[in-house]
Design goal:
Length: 268
Amino acid sequence: MLEQAEDFRAESDALYQLVSGLPDSAFDEPTAFKDWTINRVLGHLHMWNWAADLSLTDAAGFQTFMQDVITRRDAGGSVGDMERDWRDGIGGQALATAWRDYYQGMADRFAAADPSARVPWAGPSMSVRSSISARLMETWAHGQEVYDMLGVVRQNEDRIKSIAVLGVNTHGWTYKVRGQDAPSPAPHVRLTAPSGAVWTWNDPSEAELIEGPAEDFCQVVTQVRNIADTGLRVTGPNATDWMSIAQCFAGAPEQPPAPGSRRTMTRD
């Protein structure tokens, strides 16, 4: 069984439990992420879960789907419009149920797959393990805006390690997507897991160092928090520069949120 597939299921289940008791009207409330609503978040997760699953089971079908995405984008359409059309107008609890029912079967299929097998994606192909880790990351990252909007502090578990690994592994990508060379050496990363375990990456260094809670590091590399709003301790010019622009997700370069703009809201 592929551990990352079970972690993806568990993170998805946690987000489903968060929204399962909400009235349908709450799904249209804006979040602090580009005014996305819960409907937009779940619709986004649902369509790209389906696409990742298609890449596992039908590579040719996935390529056809991606060509449709590119054609619509080049014609001036937005991915958000496509996601809304794809879910055929469903929202609220009906959307939450459809998303949950699908990711459960998808997690089973990824759990049984060869972790090292290659699957296509929008950019370069990925291993099955990397593909489901990316879905875990997306679920966790977009879930944060829902937790924030609802005024709930998420209780993380050690399944976020795959997100931290992705963050470390995309140190070079953060610079490549900006047309720059990554400065060397890569900083030493020393994080404390939710369980209290210590996770480390890269050569030990006190001169170039990022240390602190693992969930804070994950928040920075997924750009759901500004580094100034975390408890990370950053030492050295390379570490400081990386944490100011870190980006573990694909696509065009994005800037982190402004300090104080992404936080757990206080609700009456």
